[in-house]
Amino acid sequence: MAPMIRLFKFYTKVRKMKNRIKCFYISFMRYIKTGKWSL
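Given the sequence above, the corresponding structure tokens read:
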């Protein structure tokens, strides 16, 4: 049971990181298109 919990915590951490990277990527592309930075 313990390894499953550890794996689940790791998975959620990775998913949060991916979301953050995606948000940053979207705002970066918008910055390239419009020329102004907005998060």
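The chain is about 85% helix and 0% strand. Try to locate this feature in the token string yourself.
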